[in-house]
Design brief:
alpha/beta; Deoxyribonuclease I, Chain A; four-stranded mixed sheet; 7 helices; 20% strand; elongated
Amino acid sequence: MACSIALVAGFFGTLHPAFDSFSHFRVHLAVLMALCALPLLATTFRLQAAVALLFAVAAFATTSGSLSFSRLWPVQAAYEAKNEDRAIYKLLQMNLRYDNPTPKKVLSLIGRTNPDVITLDEVSAMWATELGYISSAYPYRILCPYPNGIFGVALLSRRPFAAGTEARCERRGAMATATVDFGGIDVDVAAIHLSWPWPREQYWQIGELTEPLSALGETAIMAGDCNAAPWSAA
């Protein structure tokens, strides 16, 4: 009963962020409900069990388009750049983990992948120091500290920021934005890190960022850690 209430509540996330918090656990709740319903099919509660099982399958189906089943069949890497006679640029997005004990492995990954732009989350004071070691490779940068000194964001670039523009940090360091010059084409890039869902501050944080997000260009690239399931109201 409690499982079904929580599962249903997740579909009403637009009414209140408390309901939306349940939507992030939709897969877990759907699987749990199905497992609980299966044994009941052999009892006098088979009708209720069948309804619960049907609802669990339907709820799970609403998430299937966002889940990765790469282990079940070959990955179709549609995001890979086509081999055409044009410039190719790469962006690397990482949540660094504010107290990562192996920062040199991250710097090594950056060196191996050689991205043009890097967007980073959980940029703590420790990471600000570590990122200083690659300042010559990524001279165009902006680091936005979070009030707690842990959950800041950063945007690093080999490519220059567009002339006449200025990189900026949004309130409380939840998002960094910059207009990057990709060979004469200006593209807005945003690095974002949202807090956890209700009862944490994600709901009002999104409200604060609505205006700067809407100001980004039509070809803007936003990368980060939104701490939200794709099917949630967030």
